[in-house]
Amino acid sequence: MNYKHTFLIQAxxxxxxxxxxxxxxxxxxxxxxxxxxxxxxVQTEAPPLFVIEFLHRIVDMFIDYFGECTxxxxxxxxxxxxxxxxxxxxxxxxxxxxxxVLKELIKPPNIxxxxxxxxxxxxxxxxVLPSGQLSNVPWRRSGVKYTNxxxxxxxxxxxxxxxxxxxxxxxxxxQGAIACxxxxxxxPDLTMSFMNHRIMDDVSFxxxxxxxxxxxxxxxxxxxxxGNFQLLTYHVGASNLTAIPLYIKPTISxxxxxxxxxxxxxxxxxxxxxxxxxxxxCDMPKTVxxxxxxxxxxxHSFDPVSKVLSWEVGKxxxxxxxxxxxTLALQGGVPPPESNPSINVQFSISQLAISGLKVNxxxxxxxxYKPFKGVKYITKAGKFQVRT
Length: 388
What we know:
Blueprint (H helix, E strand, L loop, with lengths): L2 H8 L9 E3 L4 E7 L2 E7 L5 H19 L4 H6 L1 H11 E2 L2 E2 L4 H7 L5 H10 L29 E14 L5 E15 L5 E6 L6 E5 L5 H7 L1 E4 L4 E10 L9 E10 L2 E10 L7 E9 L4 E8 L3 E5 L4 E9 L6 E8 L12 E8 L8 E7 L6 E15 L2
Parallel strand pairs: 6-21
Antiparallel strand pairs: 1-2, 2-3, 4-5, 6-7, 7-11, 8-10, 8-20, 9-11, 12-13, 13-18, 14-17, 14-19, 15-18, 16-17, 19-21
């Protein structure tokens, strides 16, 4: 049997692709990122989340090396891709998955290095084992030096939410992460504490975090990797969700041959912060042929093939509430759609963690210099859907 063919049949719609596909001799475990599927072929029983996490590590490493992980970039750098996979996976087991270690082993590609390698026939792979590989902190290389020492932390929260037609919340929770950019000389030891750590559930840490100290004192203590990394992820349940930052009032109706469409969106409770980058998309029924709409703000587009209506609102202020309304042209001689389409929402709010999480202190030990330190809060829409 052609297992690839079986996988492609089940992948006709990316939303419906099962992450695990069992075949008579293998398990196909996949993730979908940046319009590409990444598939691991597993011959024996293995924890699926372990494999999925490793696939995400591979994609993150490609992004770290190539800037963005596209089909073109992978094809252009297939030699580096094979070299990375060879170091990250040893005899079927994950080996080196830290960026600092891999960058000492395999130099990131650039034009000059590519030309030299082509002329001399040499490789990107280092002949020397990375210094961090044999230490008790393998995620950090030794001898790091910077002229300007700085550490920046981004608290990023994504709101997953389903809102019904009346505006009531059916489901809501928050997925959060702390992304770091640390450029510090030497071997610094950092501690971070929160003002309201009790709201954080299902906390997952980078290997550099000392878990026992978190358990006993609720303080994050760690020797950071050099450069960009994700310190932790967490979950906030609906009971701790302060407020949904947007309200959306939809009015959609269909009758034979035509329909009406009206939508209003505005800020709800944003603690005085501006809601920006607002985009609303709506998957129209297949019987909708065209739309005639006018907006008070932003621009809209309708794809007659995919039937997707997109409204790019931009920034929302309480003084001017954006709206879009107009008529829909439906296919004649066909009964009107039985159900209304749902609306997917994207937005971002700077300098706000919607859960209310705040960093209390950030201290650095083990080094004499005083670095620049900064914490930034961002709230974004995750899977944010409004039923109409």
